């Protein structure tokens, strides 16, 4: 049993390993998760803001239309059929 | 009235008005030479930059001073209240557009020849010596470039002449339309203005002329068909 | 006679589309044209669904796309690493924005033909949505370029450059609309501009391809077993975003119609008072 040879091999092997590690330090892979989440954020934020803004604006305009129609009916009350104020199509 | 007769008489009328006032062309020329002057100063410190940046300043001078002329294109009609008369007159509104476009093209051509002369002097472009064979390609490419520039420019000028802030809006509308044209002429710049061996990729002047001709045909046809819709009340 | 003429014009148009440069083969052209045809058919089908349902379905599909990108798709790509995931949101917005600009051109032409204000409202809403899609494309493209190339802006991606130029063009269109008060004049002028700028879209595209600097577009290399799931998610996302943009278009158009009706009512009210 050549214990010396075994020990020698182990020592040499570990020395080689240490040398290899010191020559090529492990490079951490660049992390772009932040960029990905930023891009998702842009997309969802822009679309959601636009949806909410247009819904809000539509609601307010519809409120104003109802208010004007009511006022017009009050100033021009007609029995039976509720007359609509003159609105031309197109 | 016969279309051709109307066409030529309208051009004659526009040239007569311009000859009397001399505002548009002179303003354009002065503005262009001023731009080239400032541009040539910025590259004067480093002579090696003249080959790269000089031709770019040439096209920038034409584009920016051309808007000065375009914004004044419909000023006589606007001042005299004649915009509505265009559509009630017995001539085709498209013919009116073509006549106006030809007249403005002439003014812009005069300005571009002034730009070329100033360019030769300020940027040391030896058109009389080393580059004497470039006179014809540069002239034709410039003329076609001005045509592609003026065709939608006159249409946009008719639309923006009455608006507040109309002059600024004209420029904001026109410059994005000009970007494909600028890409074409910039790719042809090395063959037109500098030593072709220095350029990595370049387009020949003939290709540039053919492309500009095609673009001019597209824009002139489209604007000829759209102009009656702009002036109708 | 008129129908025969229309069929002839449509045939000539389709034949001309087959002659366009930039496609590798006849099969690729057919694929693109059938895709365009499917998009147009989808537009007409979606109009018949109630708006609320359409909106909810659109958002649900977009959230589902996000889920797929987080879980189903491979996390890294061969050339670009992790940052390639941005592509699944960048690509749908890019093709939707260019498609909507062309559609707005067609609607503008129809407005000039019929002189009906509702087409102008539709075109304006379409262009507003397309400008939002443009902005999303540019923002995600810049984020992706920062991750992949280290700089936020690169001149060698033709798709990004086209979208940037169209952003400037159509922002000018929106600013022009704001400068005119009379709705009839605004409709006429906007339609003329819509047609002119729609003609400009293919001109910009081909000018950059044929005369621009050497292009290194940010495309993906899809290989091996992952190719199927990547292609599926890419086109699923494209469909999902298109449906959502259609819903937002309808919403914005109805908002514009409500504004116009409100203005008319106020005018009528003022006239009654006087």
Oligomer: heterotrimer
**How do the SSEs of chain B run, as a string of H and E?**
HHHHHHHHH
Shape of chain B, please?
Answer: elongated
Q: Helicity of chain A, in percent?
A: over 70%
Q: Please report the distance between the alpha carbons of the first and last residues of chain A.
A: 103 Å
Rg of chain B is 18 Å
Report the sheet-strand fraction of chain A: under 5%
Q: How far apart, in Å, are the first and last alpha carbons of chain B?
A: 22 Å
Count of DSSP-assigned helices of chain A: 2
Number of extended strands of chain B: 0
Largest sheet of chain B: none
Strand content of chain B: under 5%
Proportion of helical residues of chain B: over 70%
Low-confidence blocks of residues of chain A: none
Query: What's the β-strand tally of chain A?
Result: 0
- Mean pLDDT, all residues of chain A: 76
- Structural class call of chain B reads mainly alpha
- Based on Cα principal axes, name the global outline of chain A: rod-shaped
Task: List descriptors.
heterotrimer; B: 233 residues; mainly alpha; C: 274 residues; 0% strand
In words, what does this structure look like?
The complex is a heterotrimer of chains A (90), B (233) and C (274). By secondary structure, chain A is mainly α. Helix content of chain A is 71%, strand content 0%. Chain A contains 2 helices and no strands. Chain B is mainly α. In chain B, 79% of the residues lie in helices and 0% in strands. Chain B has helices at 3-21, 23-44, 50-71, 75-79, 83-88, 93-122, 135-160, 166-193, 205-231. The longest helix of chain B is centred in the middle third of the chain and has 30 residues, at 93-122. Chain C has 274 residues and is mainly α. Chain C has helices at residues 2-18, 26-46, 51-71, 87-114, 117-149, 158-179, 183-211, 226-273. Chains in contact: A-C, B-C. At the B-C interface, α7, α8 and α9 of B face α6 and α7 of C.
List the helices and strands and how they pair.
The complex is a heterotrimer of chains A (90), B (233) and C (274).
Chain A: H1 3-23, H2 33-75
Chain B: H1 3-21, H2 23-44, H3 50-71, H4 75-79, H5 83-88, H6 93-122, H7 135-160, H8 166-193, H9 205-231
Chain C: H1 2-18, H2 26-46, H3 51-71, H4 87-114, H5 117-149, H6 158-179, H7 183-211, H8 226-273
């Amino acid at each position: 049993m050549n214990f010396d040879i075994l020990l020698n091999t182990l020592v040499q092997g570990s020395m080689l390993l240490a040398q290899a590690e010191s020559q090529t330090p492990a490079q951490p892979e660049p992390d772009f998760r932040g960029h990905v989440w930023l891009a998702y954020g842009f997309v969802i934020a822009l679309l959601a803001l636009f949806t909410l803004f247009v819904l809000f604006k539509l609601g307010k305009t519809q409120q104003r239309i109802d208010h004007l129609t009511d006022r017009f009916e009050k100033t021009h009350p007609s029995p039976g059929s509720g007359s609509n104020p003159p609105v031309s199509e197109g | 009235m016969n279309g051709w007769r109307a066409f030529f008489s309208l051009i004659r009328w526009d040239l007569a008005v311009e000859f009397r006032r001399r505002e548009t062309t002179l303003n354009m020329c002065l503005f262009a030479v001023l731009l080239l002057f400032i541009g040539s100063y910025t590259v004067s410190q480093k002579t090696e930059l003249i080959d790269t940046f000089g031709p770019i300043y040439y096209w920038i001078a034409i584009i920016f001073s051309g808007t000065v002329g375009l914004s004044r294109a419909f000023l006589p009609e606007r001042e005299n209240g004649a915009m509505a008369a265009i559509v009630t007159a017995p001539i085709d509104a498209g013919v009116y557009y073509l006549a106006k476009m030809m007249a403005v093209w002439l003014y812009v051509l005069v300005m571009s020849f002034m730009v070329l002369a100033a360019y030769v002097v300020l940027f040391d472009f030896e058109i009389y010596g080393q580059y004497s064979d470039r006179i014809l390609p540069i002239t034709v490419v410039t003329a076609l470039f001005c045509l592609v520039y003026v065709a939608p420019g006159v249409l946009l000028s008719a639309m923006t002449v009455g608006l507040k802030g109309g002059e600024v809006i004209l420029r904001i509308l026109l410059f994005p339309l000009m970007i494909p044209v600028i890409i074409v002429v910039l790719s042809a710049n090395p063959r037109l203005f500098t030593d072709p061996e220095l350029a990595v990729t370049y387009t020949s002047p003939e290709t540039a002329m053919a492309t500009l001709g095609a673009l001019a045909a597209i824009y002139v046809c489209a604007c000829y068909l759209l102009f009656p819709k702009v002036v109708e009340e | 006679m008129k129908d025969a003429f229309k069929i002839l014009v449509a045939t000539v148009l389709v034949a001309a589309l087959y002659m366009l440069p930039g496609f590798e083969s006849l099969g690729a052209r057919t694929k693109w044209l059938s895709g365009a045809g499917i998009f147009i058919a989808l537009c007409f089908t979606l109009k018949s669904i109630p708006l609320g349902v359409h909106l909810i379905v659109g958002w649900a599909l977009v959230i589902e796309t996000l889920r797929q990108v987080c879980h189903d798709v491979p996390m890294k790509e061969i050339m670009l690493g992790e940052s390639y995931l941005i592509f699944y949101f960048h690509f749908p917005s890019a093709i939707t924005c260019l498609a909507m600009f062309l559609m707005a051109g067609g609607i503008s032409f129809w407005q000039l033909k019929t002189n009906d204000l509702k087409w102008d409202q539709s075109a304006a809403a379409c262009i507003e949505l397309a400008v939002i899609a443009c902005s999303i494309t540019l923002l995600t493209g810049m984020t992706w370029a920062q991750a992949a190339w280290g700089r936020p802006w690169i001149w060698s991606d033709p798709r990004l450059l086209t979208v940037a130029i169209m952003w400037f063009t159509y922002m000018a269109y929106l600013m022009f609309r704001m400068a005119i008060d009379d709705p009839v004049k605004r409709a006429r002028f906007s339609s003329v501009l819509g047609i002119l700028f729609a003609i400009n879209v293919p001109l910009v595209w081909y000018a950059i391809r044929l005369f621009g600097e050497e292009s290194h577009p940010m495309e993906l290399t899809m290989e091996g077993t992952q190719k199927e799931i990547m292609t599926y998610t890419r086109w699923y996302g494209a469909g999902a975003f298109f449906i959502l943009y259609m819903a937002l278009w309808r919403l914005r158009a109805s908002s514009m119609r409500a504004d116009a009706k409100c203005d008319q009512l106020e005018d009528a009210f003022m006239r009654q008072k006087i």
